[in-house]
Sequence to fold (590 residues):
Amino acid sequence: MTVGSRTLVLATIPERHRVTSRRRVVERLIVSLLALATLASVALLLIILGYVVAQGLPAINVDFFTQRPRPVGEVGGGVQPALVGTLVLAAVSGVIAIPVGIAAAIFVVEYRTGRFATPVRFAAELIAGLPSIVIGVFVWAFLVRGLIGHFAALAGAVSLAVIMVPIVARTVEEVLRLVPNSLREAALALGAPRWKVIMRVVLPTARAGVITAAVLALARSAGETAPLLLTALGNDFFSTDLLRPIGALPLQIYRYAVSPYDDWHTKAWGASLVLVLVIGAIGLLLRVVARQRVN
Amino acid sequence: MLVPLTLAAIALLIVIDSWPSLSRFGLSYFTTSVWDPVHLVFGAAAYVYGTIVTTLVAVVLATPVALGASIFLTEFAPRRIRGPVAYLIEILAYIPSIVYGLWAIFVMVPVMRDRVEPALQGSLGKVPVIGQLFSGTPVGLDLLSGGVVLAIMILPILTAVSREVLLAVPPTQREAMIGLGATRWEAVSLAVLPYARPGIIGGIVLGVARAFGETMAVTMVVGNSSRDISGSLFVPGYTMASAIANQFVEADSELYFSAIVEVALLLLLVAIVVNTIARYLIRRSIADRPQGAVV
Fold:
C-alpha cells in the first residue's frame, strides 16, 4: 500500500477510531500488566517449590525413610511410620474408592436413561464440592464414634475414599463417553447382555483412561490432611493395623510444623519434599500416558 | 447407588449430631460470638466472620491476577508458551494444602509481619475508614495472612476456569472487533470479556467455595486465638474450618461437640449452595464443551 492511499484511508476514519498513539500506549500498558500477572503466578510456584526443595533436601537421608521419630531433643530419626501410613491409607482408600467411582461412572454413562443416573451424578458433584474437613466430621461420627469406636486407619482410608470417589467418577465418566457407540451396538447386536458389554467391551476399551482416573484420585488424596486429623489421628510407631491409629505424611508435617523445635521443622520440610515429589512424579507419569493416548 | 446414599448419610449424621446445639441456641448461634466451652455457651459469629473476611481477601487478591494471567495466556502470549505456562500455574493446584501451610508459617508470615503489614499500615493505614482495616500490631498470624494464603491456593482454579471460559469464546467475536479497527485489548475488553462474564463469575464463585472450606493452610497462619470481632485485618482469628480442626478432638461435652458439628453443618450447606451456583454459571458459558478436568 502506498503512502498516498494510506492517508486516503485514514482520512475516511473519524479521528477517535484511529489507532492513535494514546490507544497504542494503553494497549502496551495493559498487555504488560497482564504479562506481569502471569509472571507473578509462575513465580509463586517457583518460590514455593524452591523453598520446599532447598529446605527439605538437608533432611533427606537413609534414616529419614527407615527410622521412626525420636523424642524431642534427640537428633536423628525419620518419618518411616508416616511414610508407611500414607502407603497403607492410599492402598485401602483406593480399594474402596476406585470400584465405587467406576461403578458410579458406568451408571451415569451406560444407564443414562435410567431413573438413577441424574441423582448419582448430582450427588457426586456435590460431594466433590464439600470441604474435606466436613467429610472428616462425617466419617468421625460414622466410624470413629460409631462402628469402630476409636480412631483407626480404616476410618482415615474411608474419609480419603469419600474424597476420591467423585474424582474417579467424573474422570472415568469422560473416558466412557469417548468409547464409540458402534462398539456397544456391535456387542449388543451379537446378543451380549448389557453387563457383559460393559465388562468385556466398554471398560477394556477405556482401560488407559480408567487407570489415569484412579492414579489422579490417589495423587489428590495423598496430600489430604484435615480429614485424617479427625479419623486416622497419627501414630509415631510403625503400624499397619487398620483398626488402630496410623500415621501419614501430611499429619506428620502438620505436627512438626506447629512444634517449636528446629529439627522438627527441618523434618517437616523434608516430608513435604517427599510428598511433593511423589505427587509430582504421579502427575508427570499421567501427562506422559495422556500424551501417548492422544498420539 | 452408594454415592447419593453417602451424601444423604453425610447430611443426616451431621444434622443429628448438631441437633443439641441447634435446638439449644437457635438463631443466637449465628449472631453471638461468645464461645465458652466451660459455661457451655456457643455462638459461632466470630468464625463466620473470620471465614467471610479471609475468603473476601483471597478473592479480591486472586481475581485480578488470575484474570490477568488467563487473558494473557489466551489472547496475547506467544502461542508456543501458552500451554506450558498454563500447566505451570495448574501445578499450584496439586501442591497439598499442608505444604502451603508449612511454607506460609516459615516464609510468608515473617515477611507479612516485618514488611508487608507495617508498609500497609504506613500507607493505607492513614486513610480514613479503610485505615481501620490495618490498625493494631502487625503479628503476621492473622486474618490477612490467612486470606493471602487462600489467594495463592485459589489462584490456579480461578485461572484454569477463566482460561477455559475465554477459550470457549467464539473467534468470530474477536475477529469482528479487530475487523472494525479495534486494537487487540479493545477487542478483548469489549467483545471477549462481556461474552465470557458469566463463566468468569462462576470461576470466582468456585474459588469462593474452595476458599471457605480450606482448612489446613489457613489453620496454620490465621492465629486461632481471638474470639472478638474487630474491624482490623491484623488480628488473629478463626475460620469455621480451622475451628473444627482445632477443637474437634478436644470437645469434652456433648453440647460443645454438637456446637462444633453445627459449624460443619453450616459449611456443608454453604458448600452445596455455592457450588451449585458456580457450576450453573460455568456450564452456561462452556455449554457444548465437555467439562474440563479442573471444573
Chain A has a mean pLDDT of 84. Chain A is about 75% helix and 0% strand. Chain A touches chain B through 86 residues (CB under 8 Å). Chain A has two domains: 3-59, 65-294.
